[in-house]
Amino acid sequence: MKKVLVTGGAGYLGSLLIKELLNLGFKVTILDNFKFGFNSIFHLIGNNNLEVINGDIRDSIHGHIFSSNDIIINLAAIVGYPACDKDKWEATSINVDAVKQIMKIISKNQLFIQPSTGSSYGKVLDVCTEETPINPLTLYGRNKADAEKLIFEKNSISLRFATVYGVSPRMRLDLFVNQLVMSAIKNKYYVLYEANASRTFLHAKDAVNSIIFSLKNSDKMTNNCFNVGDNNQNYTKLEVANIIKKYVDFDIIKNEFASDKDQRNYSVSYDKLTKVGFKTSHNMDQGVLELIKICKIIDEQSNLRNA
Asked: Per-residue pLDDT for 52 more than 90?
């Protein structure tokens, strides 16, 4: 039985991933500081193949946990530019410095999977491939780019996720699509900055599926980076708002006199991972419909944000 360590296993993606790993028969250890609570994994606690450790990945006391697992999936991170800007030191120490320490501990016989982000591309006129020069506009993008540089001395895979959306046991409302749906339902309007800026999107379950795919196809993917998303989900922010408008009656207010602090503008090619065999299974309309269901019953003031 393969042993898998998932840092940040109670988080937005981790809480979805843990269930899938257990269903596949892995022996799973969660290492998480539970900053956002325990509720997201309550439904998994009864599984005998799950171990839960309350701790910080930066603490040296946990070093043996990293060396004793066959696979490490490093989801522990300060995610998003607002959360990183809120505490720059903590963001860098978790997103970069901790990765540096982990690389010193693990061996080349272990598999290390590092979720990264397409936001590291910044503003790009052409379609981004994995060969496109990195040009991050935010601390979060720089952190993830710096972490990626550290990992390929070992048996590693970097997954550059598109902007993730959708429902999770550890729900987040600060992600663009999730936030837009929530505002459409609760406020009946959304103020859209940089409406024609291009972004690229990925359902949370497909992000998880890409990690599972990487485990199963590590022989074809190690020591390499892959954009993770769908060529059919490159949208402008306005196009996303109009998809939501098909299902929710709300006003789109385009603000042409101010700019978004996050000025990413890029489209991405996912051909490299597609050629290995990965395909997404969820589209934007599906994600929006499930978000509508949950946003109708969530309190608008709920603390379901990273910052």
From this structure: yes
In Å, how far are 7, 122, 194, 228 from 148, measured between CA atoms? 16, 16, 29, 15
Identify the CA nearest to 295 among candidates 201, 184, 157, 148.
184
Q: Cβ neighbours of residue 159 under 8 Å, at least 6 residues apart?
A: 113, 114, 115, 116, 207, 210, 211, 214, 225, 226, 228
Q: Which pair of tokens denotes residue 253?
A: 């207010």
For residue 301, is pLDDT > 80? no
Q: CB–CB of 220/266 below 8 Å?
A: no
Which residues does residue 51 pair with via DSSP β-bridges, in sequence order? Answer: 29
Measured between alpha carbons, how far is 173 from 306 in angstroms, rounded to an integer?
A: 9
- Say how far apart CA 66 and CA 119 lie, in whole Å: 28
Judge if pTM exceeds 0.90. yes
CA 66 – CA 112 distance, rounded (Å): 10
DSSP 49: T
pLDDT tier for residue 164 given thresholds of 50, 70 and 90: very high
Cα–Cα distance between 168 and 172 in angstroms, integer? 8
